[in-house]
Design goal:
603 residues, alpha/beta, 17 helices
Length: 603
Amino acid sequence: MIGLTLFFGLLAIVHYAVAEQVPLRPTQKQPNIVFVLTDDQDLHMDSLSYMPLLKKHIADEGLSFKRHYCTVALCCPSRVSLWTGKAAHNTNVTDVNPPYGGYPKFISQGLNDAYLPLWLQDAGYNTYYVGKLFNAQTVDNYNKPAAAGWTGSEFLLDPYTYEYLNATFTRNGETPISYEGQYSTDLVAEKSFAFLDDALADQKPFFLTIAPTAPHSNVHIGSNIIDGNFSENTNVQSPPIPAERHKHLFKDVKVPRTKHFNPDEPHGVSWIGRLPRQNHTNVKDNDQFYRSRLRALQAVDEIVEELVCRLDKAGVSEETYFFFSTDNGYHIGQHRLQPGKQCAFEEDINIPFMVRGPGIPKGQTTDTVSSHTDLAPTFLKLAGGKLRDDFDGAVMPLAGVQLERDASKNEHVNVESWGIIMSEGKHGAVLYPNHTYKALRVIGDGYNYLYTVWCSGEHELYDLLTDPYETHNLIPQKHPSNNIENPSHPIYQSEVVPPGLIIQTHTDNLFEQVPRSIHHILTRLDALLMVLKTCKVSACTHPWEVLHPKGDVTNLKEALHPDFDDFYEVQQQRVKFDKCEKGYILESEGPVDVRPYLEGIGG
């Protein structure tokens, strides 16, 4: 048995060089970078359609990524991965509160000395941040120590971060100031524009992040910091509060009534598969919650336009990249879920991401698969900084469709979750334990899958080509342990041959089509997830090369060749958990060794 350690080391050397060579069209000097980062904004409930200024100034003038993903659908772990370029299992920040997450965990893991703003400063940039940085950054710990790497900062602080009319900020690590009665998003705008003026007055290039809490729910937190004792009574959540000027908007708008909205039959496994159907009052209240989110985003839309106008007026638009995204997605009513996030369903992990700037095609979209772990490498590459050899992500092809990106990276996203989940709406705000899983999104030419393994031992597989709303789990729920160890169930043997997965073998100058079953697909996905659940560096971007070091297999279709059946179906260990934990504890996450396919092995 050959472990992953040796292959991680070898592949890191090879593919670090590859990652640095992804072409980006350079500007004549180091470009400025502006990044607007919302909180909990959906893509699949159509929130972008209610932001006309964002469309006008960014989407229509730039490139939109249709398949950009967060790797943890929860605020703090997602943001830490974004700023470090590392998967959550490598940052070990997996929750919003201690002991497994939040600002104190970010500090204790040593990440305050190794994240993007510091690297940008090393590259010659002034760096500015306004808004929410991390959860559990509080009025007590904001300077113990202060968040490093920012030339200027105005951080929102807990326990007031999510109170739209009771915000508290610390400016450059100074004593916090309360702004009771003032609208939080407008304060973020005002402070951001002041830093923009500072940045424009300096000769250095600048990086400015603007991070309002919209459209996150309004949250009243009961204590300054929550440490290991989160419960239903820890906070009070209510719909986001819009600015007074926007309260009248969208009176008749409802959550899109898609096929998976409050369905007659439950979807999913674990606690999700036991959710009751929402009654009329519940649905009505959730529609109101949805309208409040859209209204809260209007002040963000105004920030986008004002930023573009100020950049134009200063004459720096042509040398500035403007990014827009969010930390994670959101669901309301899909699969019977109350308002919230943290699931591996598409609503929670597939998120808005768009950019305009030098060399970026205008008004285009791309199907390139990317994730938040790619942002730190991408920002650093744009800034002309030296890429690090410990990134789990890779530089994104911002010039879009005319650039080819390595197909093995384009194919997959590793999704993780640990601990507990709590809904945010008026109904069913129940705390569910054991919301721990490993998930894999694989999207290629002719195939599109979500595969999830829960700590309870339950499994899910959805084919999004035929089931885009993820309503039909292809793994039979009545099968013993709902696992893939016993492929005798008839559904496993059914021939599943999407157009992109027709496998051909060549014998005696003849091509023969070989049908592949669900079981064949599952075993490949499980092996790929086995690599990704503990991956580091190039194993995260090129996981197939851990399984096939010769480089002759780079995607799912190639791995489905019948010559590899024994290798995947007999020789590999399976993804499983030994215990459900509230955080990342490697000893509880089952086997970690992956057998590579070498000559004389599996053939």
